[in-house]
Each structure stands twice: as structure tokens, then as C-alpha cells.
Amino acid sequence: EIQIASILKSSELFPIPQGVKLSYGTAGFRGDAKLLESTVYRVGILSALRSLKLGSATVGLMITASHNKVSDNGIKVSDPSGFMLSQEWEPFADQIANASSPEELVSLIRKFMEKEEIAIGENNKGAEVWLGRDTRPSGESLLRAGEIGVGSILGSVAIDIGILTTPQLHWMVRAKNKGLKATENDYFENLSTSFRCLIDLIPSSGNDKLEISKLLVDGANGVGGQKIEKLRGSLSNLDVEIRNTGRDGGVLNEGVGADFVQKEKVLPVGFGFKDVGMRCASLDGDADRLVYFYIPSDSSEKVELLDGDKILSLFALFIKEQLNALEDDEERKQSRLGVVQTAYANGASTDYLKHLGLDVVFAKTGVKHLHEKAAEFDIGIYFEANGHGTILFSESFLSWLVSKQKDLTAKGQGGSEEHKAVSRLMAVSNLINQAVGDALSGVLLVEVILQHLGWSIEKWNELYKDLPSRQIKVEVPDRTAVVTTSEETEALRPMGIQDAINSEIKKYSRGRAFIRPSGTEDVVRVYAEASTQEDADSLANSVAQLVK
Ligand code: 16G
Ligand code: ZN
């Protein structure tokens, strides 16, 4: 009853805004920052309960609205594993966020605790929640609301771990619960050490092929650029210039950042003709997305985009090369590596990956869906075209690598190609964030692979040529009227619409199109691709007409 009194009292501080329906959505709650205090406070309560449910393991709360505008904010929960909050808890998140009074809130919490058998008492250790935020000005007061939410559950500890990228928070939570060193400095040290290790393993012939040219980074005026600045000093073999750090008056995500560059296919602010031919990378507002681009010498300020699919293809190529060097059961070797894409993946990338002999599977849009499927492989690489992705290594495969390395060393084959391949795979598993897609570790892995192969960005871009594509959003009275298959490639409802889409597709060479309801906005999205831009545009338009 003390507990209830404490929630009743603190929730008075955070009245729920009128007339908004809040939903945890694809990646947490998002919206106008002014309307979010009550939500963040309530998610604070949820995170403390989540920690208690899992034996007081540390849970993470990240306050960010990623690539959305600076006046927006949002909140999402990191499970103790460092992954997204278990989807089983999302309905509870929705319920408490929308509870209309303190009494209703308390009653929902009570019921849920009973169902989940969560007890608060002297016999239990309290909950522990780590709270991080991006650079949004609204972040600080929202973080306080989250702390009060956590604190309203008896015996809980809320720890403010400051301004971070989203992937840093997930990484730190994961490390903490594994009993590893888990500060921001440990994160940086882990990146620079594994990067160094991969650099040292570059075959010497690869090394001389490419003079290490400067990388230009668009920091989206957010947290990512600032963190690369901190990391830069400890990286050898990488010359980085960071633009759009947010300190020169630029606004977060405005005309900058990975989402802008990928969707609009135009240069971010601060980049221009002077940068022709330079290798450029763009991060999003919370640095969990990464795309590359360059300005070809034959054009004026046109962008050649290397999106998540291209990054995935580069990673897949490199990993496959390492797997090929292993003495391993041949069949086993083939099945170790799998890649996961969404319906948005450019058809040319899927063809390329299949051509490499890889197992390509499709997942629904949203990181949690891709992650789940990638975790089924020994090495699972997942990427969304928008630049969010990572490489997951299974625990059993990592132990296999460790024993393999020991064996080879014992046999005096420490310098063999096989030993090097094993070491590279282990270094990649340390470098690349095992919790979520991470633009910082992504940049480092791209850079070291390019050096390893002796490739320029143009050469990398030539892996395959993207099919022209077009995306349109259509405003509809009720987007839930559109229901798709689990991979979102076909619409099951409204009845008959898929047949109509199919007959449009048939009119175009290499035509492909699909519709899906957005998980973050009140719209239906249309995607189309075809062998020419005109055809892709026209296919997208006719499909959009069917949706209206
Ligand atoms: C969120 C997702 C992103 C997805 C996008 C789709 C996470 C961390 N982020 O930003 O992966 O591509 O939503 O948005 O899961 P949409 O449903 O509006 O098209
Ligand atoms: Zn993001």
C-alpha cells in the first residue's frame, strides 16, 4: 500500500495530455516532446517492473526520436540483453501510457504485477534502470520524468548515464548484465581495440593498394558526430572530418542525416561540389543508422547513395571470404551465414546476395523483426535499406571460434590464413554492436573492409547497380485497413487489392511493388521499383491510386 500511495502521488505530477492516443509502435513511443512527460514517467515505472521481473537485471531507457524533427522526442526500452523490449510487454506499455487517471494507472499496474508475478518487498533486490538521452533540448526534463517513474517503485535505482547514442545505451546495458566493463569509455576502447586488430590483419598487398583517404562524416547535428569526435583520437589508420556536429548552429536532422540523404537522395547541408569523389558517411540523429554517399566527378552535386543494402553486401562479402578460409565441414560452412532484409531491400541487392550463394530471408519492417531472424544463424547479418543493421554472432559459434583459435595456435599454425580468418571473425564480433545497429561501429567496419580489399567507394558501389525505385506515402482514413503478409511483400486486405497491384507490376520490366501501413505515421506506404526511374515512378503512382 505504501507502493500505491507513492505511484498515486507521483503520477499527479504528470497528467496525461487530452485527446492523444499513444502507442509503443515499431520502436517505442514518439511524438511532440511537449506531450510526452506522462508517457516517459509511465515507461519509467514499466522499466523498473521489467528489471524486477528479470531478477533486478539492469534495464535501459533511451530518450530519443531518432531522425524525426528536433521538437519531437520519444522513449524506448532496452531489455537486459541489450535488445529491444520483449514484444510481450508492449501491450502493457500501451495500456499504462493511455491510462486516463492515477487510479486507473495503479489498477493496471496491480493487475499486471499479479499476472507477471512481480513482487516488491524486502526479500527482493530493487530494480535498476539506466537512462540515456540524445542531444534534444527536451531530453533533460523528460529524463527527470523517467527517473521519477522508476523511483516510484520501491527500492528502485535510476541512474542517469547522460547524453549517448541509442546503440551506446544498448551496448552498455548488455555489457553490464554480462558482468563486463560497461562505461562509455569501455565502449570506445572496445571499438578502437577491435578496429586496430582488424587493421593489423590486413594482408600487406591490400594495404598498399589504397592510400588511406579522408572520410567525411555528416553527424546530422546530433549526438553521433560528437561521439566520433571523442573516439577519433584513439583510432589509427583513419582520417575523419566531421561536419554537422550541431555546434555550428545547425538544427538536428534538418537537411542533414542518414534518413534525409537516403529518402531524398540529395546532399546534406555542408556538403557540395568541393567534395567530389570524397568518401562520405551520414548518421541519423541518434546514430543507429548509417549510409554512405559520394558525388561522382561527372555531375554537379548529384548524390551516389550507398544504402543499408550496399553496406550489408560489403559485410556479407567480407564475412564469406573469412568463412571460406576455414577448415570446416563444407555443408556446415555454407549454412553458417544468413542475411536478413525487408521488402524495401533493392531487388538488385537481393539478386547480388543470392548470387554470392547466401541464404536471404525477409522480415517485417522494424529492427526487432530483423534481429529475431538474424539470431537464428551462426552469423546473421541484417540491414534495412535505411541503414539500420548489424551482424549477430551466436554464442555457440563464438565458442567454436575460440577453440579453433587455440587448436591452431597449439599446432603451430598461428600465422596461417585460417588463423587470421578466425581472428578477423572474432574481431568483427567485438567491433560490431551485438545489441542493435550502430552507426559508429558500422563506419569502422566499412572503413577497415575497404582498406582490407584496397577498394575505393566507387569500386564498392559497383558491387551491383540499384534498380530505380520510388516511395510514396498515401494519407488514408484508416491505415489498419491494409493488412499484409508477415514479410509485407503482399497485401491480404483490402480484398482484391493485391491482384490489382500485380496487374500493374506486370506492365513493367523488373517491376516490383508493395504497400504497407506505416508503423510510425498515420499513412500507407507505397514502394515500387523497375528498370527505369520513369517506370518506377509510374508504377508507384498507379499503386498509390489503388490505395486511395
Ligand atoms: C522505425 C524503426 C525502423 C523502421 C521504421 C519504419 C527501429 C529502431 N526503428 O524507425 O527500423 O524502418 O520505423 O517506419 O525499429 P514506418 O513503419 O513508418 O515505415
Ligand atoms: Zn535512429
Query: Which percent band covers the strand fraction?
Result: 15-25%
Q: Runs with pLDDT <50, length 5+?
A: none
- Separate helix tally: 20
Helix content: 40-55%
- CA gyration radius, whole angstroms: 24 Å
Q: Give the mean pLDDT.
A: 94
How far the N terminus sits from the C terminus, by CA atoms, comes to 53 Å
The ligands bound in this entry are:
2-acetamido-2-deoxy-6-O-phosphono-alpha-D-glucopyranose, zinc ion
Report the sheet with the most strands, covering strand number, pairing sense and barrel closure: 5 strands, mixed
Q: What is the SS-derived class?
A: alpha/beta
Shape: globular
Structure, briefly:
The chain is an alpha/beta fold and about 550 residues long.
Provide a descriptive summary of the structure in words:
This protein has helices spanning 2-12, 37-53, 90-98, 102-116, 139-151, 166-177, 184-200, 204-209, 223-232, 258-264, 308-324, 330-336, 347-355, 367-374, 395-410, 417-431, 439-453, 457-461, 497-505, 533-547, and strands at 29-32, 58-63, 72-78, 128-133, 157-163, 215-218, 240-243, 279-283, 290-294, 304-306, 337-341, 359-362, 379-383, 389-393, 469-474, 483-484, 491-493, 512-517, 524-529. The model has no long low-confidence stretch (mean pLDDT 94). It has a 5-stranded mixed β-sheet with strand order 1-3-2-4-5, sandwiched between helices. A 5-stranded mixed β-sheet has the order 7-6-8-9-10, sandwiched between helices. The protein has a 4-stranded mixed β-sheet with strand order 12-11-13-14, with helices on both faces. With 548 residues, it is an alpha/beta fold. The termini are far apart. A hairpin with a 5-residue loop joins strand 13 and strand 14 (389-393). It folds into 4 domains: 2-163, 3-Layer(aba) Sandwich (Alpha-D-Glucose-1,6-Bisphosphate, Chain A, domain 3), CATH 3.40.120; 189-306, Alpha-D-Glucose-1,6-Bisphosphate, Chain A, domain 3 (3-Layer(aba) Sandwich); 309-461, Alpha-D-Glucose-1,6-Bisphosphate, subunit A, domain 3 (Alpha-D-Glucose-1,6-Bisphosphate, Chain A, domain 3); 469-547, TATA-Binding Protein, CATH 3.30.310.50. The protein is globular. Helix 7 packs antiparallel against helix 16. 2-acetamido-2-deoxy-6-O-phosphono-alpha-D-glucopyranose (16G) binds next to loops. Its cofactor is Mg(2+). This is Phosphoacetylglucosamine mutase. It holds the Pfam family PGM_PMM_IV.
